[in-house]
Automatic annotation (TrEMBL):
GO terms for biological process: lysyl-tRNA aminoacylation. It comes from Microbacterium oryzae. The keyword Transmembrane helix does not apply. GO terms for cellular component: cytosol. SUPFAM superfamilies: Class II aaRS and biotin synthetases (SSF55681), Nucleic acid-binding proteins (SSF50249). This is Lysine--tRNA ligase. Keywords: Aminoacyl-tRNA synthetase, ATP-binding, Cytoplasm, Ligase, Magnesium, Metal-binding, Nucleotide-binding, Protein biosynthesis. It is found in: Cytoplasm. It comes from the Bacteria. Belongs to the class-II aminoacyl-tRNA synthetase family.
Length: 506
């Protein structure tokens, strides 16, 4: 049984898949009988590859049609196309990066028995090893004129139709298939790796130290979010999956690691949508003796360098073809003045909650539960201002009651030295002049505890161990946090479930 992909062919039914699996399992048994289970049967422990498909394409990709090299190579790849004729069989072998080479299996080179075995045993999706001369076919396709071949791994389920786009749901549920059939999926994995390498290189240029902090914590902190709860049998206690590494990284600064960063996983027991995932990769960094302006400069450099690493330019092209400019010096606007201008009414840190509620009601703005001045100001700002931001923009100077870990502004009463960076219409990163006064930090934690007592599940708790660290003296510090998944979204234009290799799905 040989399968050849046909353009616009329908997807196989469950009955078709069942029948194909049965046929393939029979071929597996035949391979075991022929080769013996000790030799691996349909799954040998290794095959004698001498090079890779990408390496051959790099060296011989420009061969003229009909050219011969006299060079023998042994390569392996997944069969993604197959055409069997009387005395000559063709197959496209694909490597993990999507590179392909043609395998030509001819009667003249392999003999009757080997050609017959190829036709009977090789299916789409199988991993196959071939060796032979590197040539260019009469049509100019880089090929191996096969003299020897063997099954490297037998696929017992068929591939999806390579000419039919997988649905988004199908892509995220079966990412392994997505990686086989779709160039963009493979490119996104490599783009993510380039981004992480670029971030680390930029930090290295600025003498930062990379560390790892606990993911299991005795109490959550560092963000306003609902945590996941688990249980330690060894300690017989409940633990929390971390919502942010902030409080531990600040301990490192107290201990003398003046420039520190971490790239790792965070977990928040909240909703999932186009920009949120319950499990996500996060970058956080802290630099002693700078402030939120200095950390904004660093963040811009980190993102622009990452764009260069992926796209070769700060002008990136998104998946839908849109060109977005991440270059230049980014805008910085202040939250209260920008809200006042957009709403047509002055809003200040002293505006009473009652007036904010009236403004929200008049403009059909949802009022958050446990509404405070700061929460409502941020909701109003998102309603009136966010949609009009087109360039990357640092939104500066937030309400004090929504930012319990941030230093009060040095010259504007009622706000803190915090920014959020908006790119492509969503929040990409946040940065602070860090609050380092342990007395004020305790007061802020107490206020958060009061919100928690009133039912706010996202409010922070008093962290005595962190306060004890602050009491030993933390230098003036700027800090920032940025979602790696969202950074990929900003560079590629993809949704969050596309930028995460294996996203959580129901």
């Amino acid at each position: 049984m040989s399968e050849t992909p046909v353009e616009n062919a329908p997807e196989p039914t469950e009955e078709d898949v069942f029948e194909q699996k049965a046929v393939r399992l029979a071929k597996r048994e035949r391979l075991i009988a022929e080769r013996g289970s000790a030799a691996g049967g349909a799954y040998p422990v290794t095959v004698p590859v001498t090079t890779t498909i990408p390496a051959l394409r790099a060296e011989y990709g420009e061969l003229e049609a009909g050219a011969e090299t006299g060079v023998t190579a042994g390569v392996a790849g997944r069969v993604v196309f197959s055409r069997n004729t009387g005395k000559l069989c063709f197959a496209s072998l694909q490597s993990g990066d999507g590179s392909r080479i043609q395998a030509m299996v001819s009667l003249a080179n392999v003999g009757d028995e080997s050609l017959a075995r190829w036709k009977e045993l090789v299916d789409l999706g199988d991993h196959v090893f071939v060796s032979g001369e590197v040539i260019s076919s009469r049509r100019g396709e880089l090929s191996i004129m096969v003299t020897n071949w063997e099954i490297a791994a037998k696929a017992v389920l068929p591939l999806p139709n390579l000419y039919t786009e997988l649905s988004e749901e199908g892509r995220v549920r079966s990412r392994f298939l997505d990686l086989i059939v779709r160039d963009q999926a493979r490119a996104t994995v490599r783009s993510r790796a380039k981004v992480n390498a670029s971030l680390r290189a930029t930090f290295d240029q600025h003498d930062f130290v990379e560390v790892e902090t606990p993911m299991l914590q005795v109490q959550p902190g560092g963000a306003t979010a609902r945590p996941f709860i688990t249980h330690s049998n060894a300690f017989d206690t409940d633990l929390y999956m971390r919502i942010a590494p902030e409080l531990y990284l600040k301990r490192a600064v107290v201990g003398g690691i003046d420039r520190v960063f971490e790239i790792n996983r965070n977990f928040r027991n909240e909703g999932a949508d186009s920009t949120h995932s319950p499990e996500f990769a996060m970058l956080e960094a802290y630099q002693a003796y700078t402030d939120y302006n200095g950390i904004a400069d660093l963040t811009q450099e980190l993102i622009q360098n990452a764009a260069m690493a992926v796209a070769g330019d700060t002008k990136v092209t998104w998946a839908d073809g849109t060109v977005y400019d991440l270059g230049g010096q980014w805008d910085r606007v202040s939250m209260y003045p920008s809200l006042s201008e957009a709403a047509g009414v002055e809003v200040t840190p002293d505006t009473p909650l009652e007036e904010l509620l009236k403004l929200a009601e008049a403009n059909d703005v949802d009022v958050p539960s446990h509404a405070t001045h700061g929460k409502l100001v941020e909701e109003l700002w998102e309603h009136f201002v966010k949609q009009h931001l087109t360039r990357p923009t640092f939104v500066m100077d937030f309400p004090v009651d929504t930012s319990p870990l941030v230093r009060e502004h040095r010259s504007i009463p009622g706000v803190v030295e915090k920014w959020d960076l908006y790119v492509r219409g969503f929040e990409l990163a946040t940065g602070y002049s860090e609050l380092v006064d342990p007395v004020i930090q305790r007061e802020r934690f107490v206020e958060q505890a009061k919100l928690a007592d009133r039912g706010d599940d996202e409010a922070m708790r008093i962290d005595e161990e962190f306060l004890r660290a602050l009491e030993h003296g933390m230098p003036p510090t700027g800090g920032m946090g940025m979602g790696i998944d969202r950074l990929l979204m900003a560079i590629t234009g993809l949704g969050i479930r596309e930028t995460i290799l294996f996203p959580l799905v129901k």
